[in-house]
Design a protein that fits this description.
Number of helices: 2
Distance between the termini: 15 Å
Order of helices and strands: HH
Strand content: under 5%
Helix content: over 70%
Radius of gyration: 17 Å
Length: 73
């Protein structure tokens, strides 16, 4: 069983990585929209869709960690 301080540091790291992943996905979306408008639909147009499950997994892990921290405090 992890200590509460370990849970808090893990939550903080996961939040930071999730924010970075969100920013990356937004940049990829902008590039894909530009590419689709300029050229046509191709594989790159669907690239953000492949990263969304990773983002969702991180969000659910953050929720779980936050819930665990609140129950221990």
């Amino acid at each position: 069983m992890k200590k509460i301080t370990e849970l808090k540091t893990e939550e903080k790291k996961l939040r930071t990585l999730t924010y970075a992943l969100t920013g990356l996905i937004l940049v990829i979306m902008v590039v894909c929209i530009y590419s689709t408008v300029k050229n046509s639909m191709d594989f790159i147009s669907f690239l953000p869709v492949f990263f969304l499950p990773m983002l969702l997994v991180n969000v659910f892990k953050i929720r779980k960690l936050t819930k665990e921290i609140k129950t221990r405090e």
